[in-house]
User: Fold these one by one.
Assistant:
Number 1:
Amino acid sequence: MEEKTDHQLLTLLVAYKGRIFCSALGFLTGIFVLWLGWIKALSFLFCVVVGYYVGKKADGGNNILTKIKELFYRRRFK
């Protein structure tokens, strides 16, 4: 019986992963705004989003360090 309940819970989590993630993100944003203030909370969330984007690119097989080095070297020598 417990195995069936775990399967149902997992199915619900997968089906509503966007709603769950965005609700958790909204909850955390609210806590940060109350704790830090608007500007610091938005700065923090911006860093989290950039970190997520870089992590997603790194997981995708793209060599992010090579791209960052190319970006800096290109600007440096122009």
Number 2:
Amino acid sequence: MSHHHDPDHSRGDGTSPRSDSTPLNWLLLLPLAATLYPPLYNRDEPRLFDIPFFYWYQLAAISIGVTCTLIVYRAKRG
């Protein structure tokens, strides 16, 4: 009986390989870092279409988070 090593199931030490070890996962920290320090965005100016910076920055952070998540998700599937 031959033993063949299947990297998808075991590393030989009884543990499964990490599926989240790609450096692309660091991209997921970008939206967190963008909102972690409120003094960075807690202001009125510059305004965008008369919307205070605080509000449009938060909406932009959500869009950045969705985009980063989509990039990482697609990279892992492909």
